[in-house]
Amino acid sequence: MISPPEMHDYLRTAIIAPMTTGSHPAPFRIPVRHGGKNGLILLDEIRAIDKTRLVKRTGAVTPSILSATLAVLAEIFAE
């Protein structure tokens, strides 16, 4: 989930960035290791979903991955 708590704590939706193990690297895709597998956070595929679809939490990214993710999002949405 990439939406801030100020947003998703009050709405029925959350903004998410999917993760995959079968895609091609790109400057806007963040490398991550999760569940023992290498993959990518796909910031080019962010979307809003209903929180009822979020069944269980499987982990969290490290502070360095979070910082990299936020930096890329800032670059994508900068003027």
Architecture blueprint of SSEs:
Elements: H1 5-8, E1 13-16, E2 19-20, E3 29-34, E4 37-42, E5 47-50, H2 63-77
Antiparallel strand pairs: 1-5, 2-4, 3-4
The side-by-side strand order for the widest beta sheet comes to 2-4-3
Distance between the termini: 24 Å
Overall pLDDT score: 90
Low-confidence stretches: none
Gyration radius, in Å: 13 Å
H/E topology pattern: HEEEEEH
How much of the sequence lies in strands comes to 25-35%
Category from helices, strands and their pairing: alpha+beta
Count of separate DSSP helical elements: 2
What overall form do the CA principal axes indicate? globular
Short recap of the structure:
This protein is an alpha+beta fold. The chain is built from two helices and five strands, in the order αβββββα. It has helices at 5-8, 63-77; strands spanning 13-16, 19-20, 29-34, 37-42, 47-50.
Quick tags:
single chain, about 80 residues, alpha+beta, three-stranded antiparallel sheet, two-stranded antiparallel sheet, 2 helices
Q: Describe it for me?
A:
With 79 residues, the protein is an alpha+beta fold. It is built from 2 helices and 5 strands, in the order αβββββα. Strand 3 and strand 4 form a beta hairpin. The chain is globular. 8% of the residues are buried. The model has no long low-confidence stretch (mean pLDDT 90).
